[in-house]
Amino acid sequence: MTQLEIHREALTHNVTTLTSKLAPGVRFIAVVKANAYGHGAVACIQHLQSLGVKYFAVAYTDEGIALRQAGVQDPIMVFYPEPHRFADIVTHQLSPAIYSKQTWDNVLEHIAPQTPPFPIHLKFNTGLNRIGFSPSELEWIFSESQHKNVRVVSVYSHLGGTEEAQPDAQVAQQLTVFEPILQRFKQHPHRPWFHLLNTSGVFHYPNHQLDAVRCGIGLYGYANAPAWDAQLQPVGHLTTSIVQIHHLQPGEYVGYNKGWQATTESRIATLPLGHADGIQRGFGHAKLQVWVQGQPAAVVGNICMDMLMIDVTHVACSPGDSVVLFNASHPLSEWAAAAGTIPYEVLAGLGPRVSRVWR
Fold this sequence. Notes:
The protein is an alpha/beta fold. It has two domains: 8-223, TIM Barrel, CATH 3.20.20; 236-358, Lyase, Ornithine Decarboxylase, Chain A, domain 1, CATH 2.40.37.10. The chain contains twelve helices and 19 strands.
């Protein structure tokens, strides 16, 4: 009943749009973490490969292993390799981001002399203060990274506010901090790539593309600003269907904790998705509207674990009729904003009961 329709043409459009903004020679790293932001990583990668994408990135080790087991042979970068998983990272030939002295020791402990040397990436913390080497550790890791058993594929950092209005003081400071790191590693015996930009950065900071960019949410149709979103197409369209319709009299309630009370004769439709499918409590109480027969219908009462209810008093509809939660005409960015969240959270939260169907 409930499915996320994945549109190949939209994914193609987004890749074409994003890569068209890159200078010649700039590499495109497709971020497919969190099951390709809820869209299904393996199927997305297969289509991305058909478009010529050759580099992929995930968050954690198990995500990379799953892709290897599905037959993906292209380079897979692991942003946040867990210290106790380096044996698995080496076994499955993943490329970890090394971000601390501990992770440096971990990778050396598990690799053996090999040809070619084992590929790694070096992550620096320039002000986001999440993970990364401190700039004060630059000389130490520069020296260590010349170890014969490793090859530094790239040196990078993550900017904290590329979607903010320019000039942004935090981004400017991060660019300043990264510059001596970049200049030092240009002197590395095996010059690595450099990269800083995410999707918003591709749109907003074209002069800082360096050697590569990392695009995640933009692949799937969103770029954190209405003008940029307008250049992309939503890849996932979430639909469901009506399970049952109840006829309420004035004074009757809907859902847990008397979440909604009818003030007039009302028709309330039940939809088969709820918390377990990624629909958060914050979407209840008319903060969210869906579309039935082309007309808006508000969510009433509290979201349940497996179901939610909508007011269809004004809509001619029946059980089994299709309901649109978001699609190209009714963007997820607007849908999410109504509940005080963002597309990332909604897409990544869609549970396994939601079928992924390619169109």
